[in-house]
Amino acid sequence: MxxxxxxxxxxxxxxxxxxxxxxxPVIFTKPDTAILRNNEPFYYPSISNNIHxxxxxxxxxxxxxxxxxxxxxxxxxDEIGLGIDFTARDVQSKLKEKGLPWDLAxxxxxxxxxxxxxxxxxxxLQNLNFELKVNGETRQKGNTSHMIYKFDYIISFxxxxxxxxxxxxxxxxxxxxxxxxxxxxxxEATLEGNMMLDFEVK
Length: 202
Ligand code: MG
Description:
Elements: E1 3-7, H1 11-16, E2 26-30, E3 35-36, E4 51-53, E5 55-61, E6 77-84, E7 87-88, H2 89-97, H3 103-106, E8 112-113, E9 118-119, E10 129-134, E11 137-143, H4 151-158, E12 169-171, E13 179-180, E14 186-191, E15 194-200
Parallel strand pairs: 1-12, 3-8
Antiparallel strand pairs: 1-2, 4-7, 4-13, 5-6, 5-12, 6-9, 10-11, 10-14, 14-15
The structure holds magnesium ion.
């Protein structure tokens, strides 16, 4: 399986990092070795001194497809969840300065903790509230109505480049409030009030 992620998909987050609003989706990938499941702890890696949390709604692809039309994209995922797109911000800043790819800053081991998936049927996907607390304090609060590129458009766009396969996971971008995590932090994330992630940084 593979992990595909979109960057710069919420205006307030673009502003907080002083990035430009993209004219087309900013896409990157993470290897499957980035995944953490079952609330396994995130072990702070030696490659960075400034790891940021980015809470994101994630989609699980349920069948193979390529060149998927936006109007059919909803048939390619039944389940949603939450993930953290951990980002080595110091590494990323250096790469961005040089115009280099972000892989090292985004795809390191454990950089993609993911929740269990739940059926999308019970939710209004255009109006999903999601929230991250660190040590009990709210850090990120998002609503999918603020996404620049919606779920179905993202699927249509990426499937022109990458054949999507069953089990692939798409990270759909982070709202404002990204910040550093420290060893000992406890991260808890909810989707429409459902506890989805609850793990520690070690
Ligand atoms: Mg992100």
